[in-house]
UniProtKB/TrEMBL annotation, chains A, B:
<dbReference type="InterPro" id="IPR011032">
    <property type="entry name" value="GroES-like_sf"/>
</dbReference>
<dbReference type="InterPro" id="IPR036291">
    <property type="entry name" value="NAD(P)-bd_dom_sf"/>
</dbReference>
<dbReference type="InterPro" id="IPR041694">
    <property type="entry name" value="ADH_N_2"/>
</dbReference>
<protein>
    <submittedName>
        <fullName>CurA protein</fullName>
    </submittedName>
</protein>
<feature type="domain" description="Enoyl reductase (ER)">
    <location>
        <begin position="14"/>
        <end position="335"/>
    </location>
</feature>
<dbReference type="InterPro" id="IPR013149">
    <property type="entry name" value="ADH-like_C"/>
</dbReference>
<dbReference type="GO" id="GO:0016628">
    <property type="term" value="F:oxidoreductase activity, acting on the CH-CH group of donors, NAD or NADP as acceptor"/>
</dbReference>
<dbReference type="Pfam" id="PF00107">
    <property type="entry name" value="ADH_zinc_N"/>
</dbReference>
<dbReference type="InterPro" id="IPR020843">
    <property type="entry name" value="ER"/>
</dbReference>
<dbReference type="InterPro" id="IPR045010">
    <property type="entry name" value="MDR_fam"/>
</dbReference>
<dbReference type="Pfam" id="PF16884">
    <property type="entry name" value="ADH_N_2"/>
</dbReference>
<keyword id="KW-0560">Oxidoreductase</keyword>
Length: 344, 344
């Protein structure tokens, strides 16, 4: 049999959890013109929150879809052979046939990656890694000695942004995270220079004061994962030639309507400041930069430390997804599919 | 004697006019270690509005300072000889000695430029020209067939942005301007595809409807000269990979406090949209691009048409400055200094 994680209902408001998902069994599929594959790990990522809304592209009563890593079981194509490891976007079904026409977006996981650490393929060497890499290197373009602020600093993307900026580019790196335990992790394990516990900031003004204390001359770059008061505090403290990379707005994801921010665009003119949104695809698929080689090297050298919060079993996806919005994770949220021998 | 235009009082609110300036006479200065120069034309530009506030850098009871073009009368430096024409930022004093240490920022006006059309040096080949050039070519980076919207389309910068985008880059160009006469000029003389009379739009929603009518698939680029409802309408209609160049916010210049805009940064992520502020210096001084050669060629070819509103006499600066904020000009506002033989 094959096991699928099904989205039970679309959800426009509030925090998603186990009650919005269920498992279903199907007959084990047969190899077609492409591959028969087994999933080892699947992702729970904040961006999925938009996609389960009724105006999103994930439909109720169908399997969830997202970024996965797994192994080829059987193959009918010359490029792939049984045992090969891959990363891809696929339905959350533990064993499935993939048509040959859909293999263009499969990424081969080699080098550092083996069955035991295959979650790298959905983490540092997958979507979050390429998001951190592209957003930092090509959108923010750091220079040695500049000051970076990154929100969601204990999360999958934010932690890697800060580690690359600090240990590769030689920036001064300030994080913000929710609560003292996360701030400790950010400082001690990831090696950030400072971390602001945003939960003790009751207002944008509080956050500006906290940021100004650790960045008295302001910030050169802000990597946005959170939105809301973080964005406005960053703009207030942004120096001339400052850059803001907009990656995510998690504070907004569970609200029925998007919340606007206030912006004073006239402040951006003589300072030549820039705000730029982006998504990871150009770097993940090799159209820009040198993501896989660079990131594998940095992981290997220990400059980027792999941090994961692991949930066991495809059926635990709902709990894993909920954790993202309740501060229940550090680093990448990995859902390990039952029956694999993955043992991080 | 030398004649100076003096700022009488700083002004934090309201429209500046003749009552805020006065003329004063000084003894004719003597040549020092640099140049003795005569001004032929001086600028009235919107950006000066910020600088005459009490927190600006223009002090009451001193001469106004801004972009000028003139001629060398006497010289003590090898690079300049009597009769040479120049563009520079100088105090508004018709005859003045310029120390050698201040000549680094002098630009030589040659090629197309002669005494009769020297206002090109404060227009198409000066600050407004380099602003239009840099903002369009390096900040917006147009591709053939893309749709550009530019506000202040009858003004010095906006008109040139649209003409370059249309006649050099092959874009579809939409302007916005105040009133039917300006819209007619924008369409008929400058050759824009469409022009929106923003004065008939009572709200952001009206402006969005007007813009959507002429750009039913949205806009790829917005060149911001105005701010307020223009910015929000542009963001609403901005397509994926859309870019906004923030050049000026004239709707805000006479208010005592800056007005914020609403922005939904989450809309910028998957669309990879960018908002970028800039000022003309990198292009005006040749650090980026190829401004002087390119623009002189486009003027010569008639792709960029020179449009000016001329005021006669240094003492008319106050009226010229007021015209900028009352819709009283088309193209570049030129103040012709009395006693020159400039005769555009």
């Amino acid at each position: 049999m094959a096991n699928a994680l099904i989205l039970r209902t679309n959800l426009n408001e509030g925090i998603p959890g186990p009650e919005h998902f269920e498992m279903r069994q199907f007959p084990r599929p047969q190899l077609g013109d492409g591959l028969l594959v087994q999933l080892f790990v699947v992702s729970a990522d904040p961006y999925m929150r938009y996609r389960i809304r009724s105006d999103g592209d994930f439909k109720a009563n169908t399997p969830m879809l997202g970024l996965v890593a797994g192994k080829v079981l059987e193959s009918n194509v010359p490029d792939w052979k049984p045992g090969d490891l891959f990363g891809a976007e696929l339905p959350y079904v533990d064993i499935q046939a993939v048509p040959a026409a859909k293999l263009a977006m499969f990424r081969r996981l080699t080098g550092l990656v083996n069955e035991d650490n295959i979650s790298l393929g959905i983490g540092a060497l997958g979507m979050p890694g390429s998001t951190a890499y592209g957003g930092l290197t090509d959108i923010l373009r750091p220079k040695r000695g500049e000051v970076l602020w990154v929100s969601g600093a204990a999360g999958a993307v934010g932690s890697m942004v800060g580690m690359i900026a600090k240990h590769v580019f030689g920036c001064t790196v300030i994080g913000s995270a929710g609560g003292p335990d996360k701030c400790k992790l950010v400082m001690e394990r990831f090696g950030f220079d400072h971390c602001i516990d945003y939960k003790v900031c009751k207002s944008t003004r509080d956050l500006i004061i906290a940021l100004s204390k650790v960045a008295p001359s302001g910030i050169d770059m802000y990597f946005e994962n959170v939105g809301g008061m973080h964005f406005e505090a960053a703009m207030k403290c942004l120096r001339p030639n400052g850059r803001v990379a907009v990656c995510g707005v998690i504070s907004d994801y569970n609200n029925p309507k998007m919340s606007p921010n206030k912006i004073y665009i006239s402040n951006m003119i003589y300072t030549a400041q820039r705000i730029e949104g982006f998504h990871c695809f150009p770097w993940l698929f090799g159209q820009r930069g040198n993501f896989l080689q660079d990131m594998a090297k940095w992981v290997d050298e220990g400059k980027v430390k792999v941090e994961e919060t692991v949930f066991d079993g495809l059926e635990s996806f709902g709990s894993a997804f909920r954790a993202l919005f309740e501060g229940g994770n550090t680093g990448k949220v990995v859902v390990r599919v039952t029956g694999t021998k993955s043992k991080l």
